[in-house]
Target: Ribose-phosphate pyrophosphokinase
Amino acid sequence: MHGELKIISGSASPQLAEAICEHLGTKPSPVLRERFSDGEIRIEIGENVRGDDVFVIQPTCSPVNYHLMELCLMLDALKRASASRVTAVVPYFGYARQDRKVVPRAPISAKLVADMLSAAGMQRLVTCDLHAGQIQGFFDCPVDNLFAAPVLLEHLRDRDDDFVIISPDAGGVERARAYAKRLGASLAIVDKRRDAPNQAKAMHIIGDVRDKVAVVVDDMIDTAGTMCAAANVIMDNGAKEVMASATHPVLSGPAMQRLEESAFSEVIVTDTIPLNGENCCQKIKVRSVASLLAKAINNVHTESSVSVLFV
Model:
């Protein structure tokens, strides 16, 4: 046992941290977060954490660099305050799409971020649906990569429909297959050609979608170009309805407008990234991962199995 359980929240998603604490029956520890006049971040932990088991909740969402730096400073402060163990709970792990060299003289940014967090004082990582599972190998500490599928599938299980789960590309087939197995649904794939970064052209469907409710499954929705192009092709192939499901609602650039104008009837996401309610697309339905993360935190703290959450 690593001492008393303490929850520290960064500024990225205090609502998620509060929800996690409600499930755990505790409250976030006080943290002073300020900016100096030149833009530098000031962090001060507001209570004694010596010998405690501390969990820092901070998705590295937009503004990514600010939230990443804030996380590093909190980790360093806890390390220097003699916390027994410091676990970073990063529901959305930024820079994960830069996990290999695709052109000469380019960084492997995901590895660099992993090294930064470890150097700052992180001794364990809890995250959700890493963009590439092999990123776990970038860390020299334990990594619990949780799957949000059970949370997202709750919404679909309430419906009595003939579903077909769609992978928007070949790389997402394993994820789509896992969804299809849990839902007892068939599987299909969208064949696409990527012409430029953040732009993709969907070509045709491999599989049968006619007269079925199609659910396009991905780990994140960024600019929504891939998703919306896939929706059009799916409807052109005779689907009765098309929905989208993704863990991380990055939703940058024209994503909101694209989703609003798309063929999707619903877009199911989680709160790994907080959404701005005022500008949010009406089709988006948010399901919380607070319970999932709270169970993982409790199991890590009590030295219980975390793998039971993967069933």
User: Anything to note?
Assistant: The longest helix spans residues 64-80. DSSP finds eight helices and 14 strands in the chain. The first strand starts at residue 5 and ends at 9.
